[in-house]
Specification:
By secondary structure, the chain is of the alpha+beta class. The chain has 2 domains: 30-66 and 77-108, Helix Hairpins; 115-260, Sandwich (Immunoglobulin-like). Helices cover 32% and strands 23% of the residues. The protein has a 5-stranded mixed sheet with strand order 3-2-1-5-8, with no helix packed on it. It has a 3-stranded mixed sheet with strand order 4-10-9. A two-stranded antiparallel sheet has the order 6-7. A hairpin with a 4-residue loop joins strand 6 and strand 7. Helix 2 runs antiparallel to helix 3. The longest helix has 34 residues, at 30-63. It is elongated. It starts with a helix and ends in a 5-residue tail after the last helix. The protein binds dinuclear copper ion (CUA).
């Protein structure tokens, strides 16, 4: 009986992907909230159109058959009908375009960031750099680390029950919440894509090109993502784990040891 539950599509989930999931993960940024609401708006319009068109098709098939033509229309042309069937779709398109454009332009907005995280895609792991704290570290070097996936064998050996298979990494990205952040994304070898569904962030990492994205995390938590650009055999095995913590704690962490784990 319990196993049947796993067959049910999951509509709501936390900050990691879930088996048979249909809906989005919980939004953690205003960006993702916007995307989420826009998706609901689109779904409403799409379902309404499907119902209206389905009803039209059904009524045409049942009312206007070859054998029963007692209900014959007496006109071959109608201006009002043409006006209606051009303006209504145009208005529907307008109602889709206006929230879509405002959302698109709001994603492009770059506000003055407090911190910059540089993200490098490799075959097949991610590495990260933070250079904002150079002057406070003794070595005066930027904070650099690579984050590799934890294998199933490792998780089993260490009895890591409750960990997500193929989603956990040895080191997590740590970022502060309620602060404007800048992401700089690039790749070292081939195309990758840095994605965290809860943030609504999916930015291609292109070799020889620096892509920029802004991020404002609204709540603390551990967020999971995966590479989203086919990049070779281990494409499915370069996950992203991000720990978002309140700015004060983050600042303390940076000042005390400059060490992430
Ligand atoms: Cu890296 Cu797919």
């Amino acid at each position: 009986m319990l196993s049947l539950l796993y067959l049910m599509p999951t509509f709501w989930s936390g900050d990691a992907a879930v088996a048979y999931q249909l809906g989005f993960q919980d939004p953690a940024t205003t960006t993702m909230e916007g995307i989420y609401l826009f998706n609901l708006h689109l779904l409403f319009v799409i379902i309404s159109i499907v119902i209206v068109v389905g009803w039209l098709l059904f009524s045409v098939l049942t009312n206007f058959t070859e054998f029963d033509n007692s209900d014959v229309a007496t006109f071959v042309h109608s201006n009002p009908v043409e006006i209606i069937w051009t303006t209504i779709p145009a208005l529907i398109l307008l109602s889709l375009a206006s929230p879509s454009f405002s959302l698109l332009y709001s994603l492009d907005e770059i506000s003055n960031p407090e911190l910059t995280l540089k993200i490098l895609g490799h075959q097949w792991y991610w590495s990260y750099e933070i250079s904002d704290f150079n002057s406070c570290s003794e070595s005066n070097q930027s904070l650099k680390y690579s984050s590799y996936m934890l294998t199933n064998e490792f998780l089993q050996e260490n009895n890591s029950i409750g960990f997500f298979r193929v989603l956990e990494t040895n080191k997590r990205v740590v970022l502060p919440t309620n602060t404007h952040l800048r992401l700089l994304i690039t790749a070292v070898d081939v195309l990758h894509s840095w994605t965290i569904p809860s943030f609504g962030v999916k930015v291609d990492a292109c070799p020889g090109r620096l892509n920029q994205a802004n991020l404002f995390i609204k709540r603390f938590g551990v967020f999971f993502g995966q590479c989203s650009e086919i990049c070779g055999v281990n494409h499915g095995f370069m996950p992203i784990v991000l720990l978002a913590m309140p700015s004060v704690q983050y600042h303390y962490l940076i000042m005390t040891n400059l060490h992430f784990n």
